[in-house]
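Practice problem: Dienelactone hydrolase domain-containing protein
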Amino acid sequence: MVVKSRPLSRTLLHDLLGGAEDPGPLDVRVESEKAEDGYVRRHVSYPISSGRASVFVCLPSGVSGAAPVIFCHHQHAGRFDLGKSEVCGISGDPDQAYAAELARRGFVTVAPDAIGFEDRNWADGQNITWFELSSRLVVGRSLLGDCLREISVALDYASALPEADASRIGFIGHSYGGRMAMWAPAWDRRITASVSNCGCIPYRESFTRDTGFQAEFVVPGFAATYDVEDVLAVADHCRYLIMATDDDRWSRGAEDIRRNLDAMGVDQVTVEVRHGRHDFPATARDSAYEFLARELTKS
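Answer key — structure tokens:
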């Protein structure tokens, strides 16, 4: 671990990520709505600093009372034509359809397109994230800061729905989404349970040509002093389940993360390493869903 000049705090984290623009009033427009097996999927949009967010929210059927909210972040996989549609099971890998599966289990799920993906891609599915990064860096902002701010806005929307219990908010993601699952609770304290699958690789393990640095996580100077353990420690209000596999480059460093957290006295993070590759099979998803249900139904 690197030597820290001062501990990472939520205020310092916000400062390091740069000021994010306020999107203004949440003027929600319902684009469409469709009944699915066990839930209703609604497509909504609302203003954000770079245009309009494009979001699916899945509302469980037959549930009495307000349900917990789960933010479902999509993967990367170099598929900039996919985002919210994959986690909702409309297209892409069926093993990524956790927003739909959680809605069938009685959760309100919210799944936006991240910047540069699906409806947020303005270049016919090409990689625009490095442009999105550089155009922010030159004015003292970061792509990560804006992505996290958009997560908070999505939670503003979802938690205000009559079907939602704003006091019980969780997060789940695979790969890119798994990385965001570590950062989002440090940014937004409403998130009290978070599952990261196959996305825990720390900065210190990323200086290799087969991994490198994803544009969204390029924060000037951050890795000179801090790493993902510091981010996890900031979110001391949140219970984490970090799921990794033993044959996945994006899971590298999982065991070190566990040891470092123990040495730091951070006890709200569980790290599990299973046999497998860069995947999210049904057995792992079931464990993730059980964790979220358990943590979000505690009194």
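Discussion: Strands lie at 29-36, 39-48, 51-60, 67-73, 108-112, 164-174, 191-197, 239-245, 269-274. Students who identified this feature from the tokens alone can consider the problem solved.
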